[in-house]
# Entry
Amino acid sequence: MILSPSLLSADFSRLAEELQALEAAGVTWLHLDVMDGAYVPNITFGPPLIKALRPGSGLFFDVHLMVEDPSRYIRDFKNAGADMLVIHAEADRHPQRTLSAIREMGCKAGVALNPGTDLGAIRWLVNDMDMLLIMSVNPGFSGQAFIPATFDKIRAARRLLDACGRADVLIQVDGGVCPENTAQLVEAGADVLVSGSAFFGHKPYDARLAAFMKPLAG
Ligand code: DX5
Ligand code: ZN
# Structure
């Protein structure tokens, strides 16, 4: 399992230090939540912030685009230093075209689905994606409660990807993830877990990372 801490819950007054502390603790991915105030009822940050963080970090930048019509911005995010761009299926009329464009730029491509969106939305996109992000809260804010129906959705997603010959597509889960549910999420088929509020604010980060990993050992 890969843990991808969400920058949204980091100390925004000391971001460079936060990223260094994550790397020193053994974290390899960073989840960057981009919100436009239109697709979701919140505004966060855009390419300039990612560009500023990029030179000082070796973390894999997993960029979650919660924006309307994300194709307008993929070039800017790639140039800023994104390693993976995840678009919402609900926010793009032509997701296949956008996913292809992301890959042509040399970026990994992912599709996110809101809790109420059926897996049918990605059935004909499976060959265009590297990761499926299953939202376990409605996007917009950190600190929300995990939606239990997510467990069945992860299992169904794993079956669908396996049946389509895409067992290699990563399944990421985002929202309300904490050490108490990591074992069940991984058992259901999750590969990458995002955590904001349950990760940051618990220093030192090496011990917190271990707390997320420990339930998987038993
Ligand atoms: C929600 C974001 C999440 C969020 C996770 O819209 O996409 O990445 O920051 O925060 P927690 O782990 O606190 O639910
Ligand atoms: Zn996210």
Remarks:
- Helices lie at 15-24, 47-53, 74-80, 95-104, 150-163, 182-188, 205-217.
- The longest helix spans residues 150-163.
